[in-house]
Write a structure and sequence with these properties.
metal-binding; transferase; transferase activity; Rossmann fold; Transketolase_N; metal ion binding; 276 residues
Length: 276
């Protein structure tokens, strides 16, 4: 299972690089860092079915850090929500794949996001609604660590704890970098574990690129009662493409055709190695 997850995650990274190069704009760094997490969510963790997209009992995923739309679009296409060829239309005039996810235009997108913190708040509202309706479906939301500088995040975190939303999981893509530099230089967000715990959350720290650790964290979250779970996933910005890794300059710059080829050769090497 782990070998397949690694293969799927690197195929997702190939799609991210390809669509961003075709678009000539977008956000590679934070999309690549989240590829392993979204791969596990969509291939293993969540109850979703592209052939029954409107199932009222489906699990929901909300990309709160909406600028990382390429990672969401990529995994949705891979799971069959729309044609993979459509990925090359990202950010082009007339395309349904905008720079940020639009729930009215993209099959599989549960909430339009982009303004940081609002996707997380919507996730809390959806989880409350599911509780009221006695639904067993779960809500998963991915936040950037720089996003935690938004006050709305902590208001929502407080509400989730108050309402004992054990059907809600927040994953923090903790790659340490945001558009203006390192988190600790722009506005310190650590210590994350202690902060989430102080807001009444069950809090787990993991390596966000280890499928074994990702699996254990989601299993623990499912078994936790009367508390929402925050998974603090330590990740590498630009993961999988060596020249992008831990480089703040790749937060919101698309690769050139030459850089796409270089990234493709590296990622295809990983995929071929996993297939041996």
């Amino acid at each position: 299972m782990i070998e397949k997850m690694n293969k799927y995650a690197n195929e997702l990274r190939l799609h991210i690089i390809d669509m961003l190069t075709e678009a000539g704009s977008g956000h590679p760094g934070g999309s690549l860092s989240a590829a392993d997490i979204l791969t596990y969510l969509y291939y293993k963790e969540m109850n979703i079915n592209p052939n029954n997209k409107d199932d009222p009992n489906r699990d929901r995923f909300i990309l709160s850090k909406g600028h990382a739309a390429p990672v969401l679009y990529g995994v949705l296409a891979m799971k069959g929500f729309f044609d993979i060829e459509d990925l090359k239309s990202l950010r082009k005039v007339g395309s349904f794949l905008q720079g940020h996810p639009d729930m009215k235009k993209v099959q599989g997108v549960e909430m339009s996001t982009g303004s940081l913190g609002q996707g997380f708040s919507a996730s809390v509202g959806i989880a409350i609604g599911n509780k009221i309706d006695s639904k067993k479906s779960r809500v998963y939301t991915l936040l950037g660590d720089g996003e935690l500088q938004e006050g709305i995040v902590w208001e929502a975190a407080m509400a989730a704890s108050h309402y004992k939303l054990d059907n809600l999981v927040a994953i923090i893509d903790n790659n340490g970098l945001q558009i203006d530099g390192a988190n600790d230089e722009v506005m310190k967000v650590s210590p994350l574990k202690e902060k989430w715990e102080s807001f009444g959350w069950n809090t787990i720290e993991i390596d966000g690129h280890s499928f074994e650790e990702i699996k254990k964290a989601f299993t623990q979250a499912r078994n936790k009662k009367e508390k929402p779970t925050a998974i603090i996933a330590k990740t590498v910005k630009g993961k999988g493409v060596t020249f992008m890794e831990n480089q703040i300059g790749w937060h919101g710059v698309a690769p050139s055709n030459e850089e796409r080829l270089k990234a493709f050769n590296e990622l295809k090497g990983f995929i071929e190695k996993e297939g041996e």
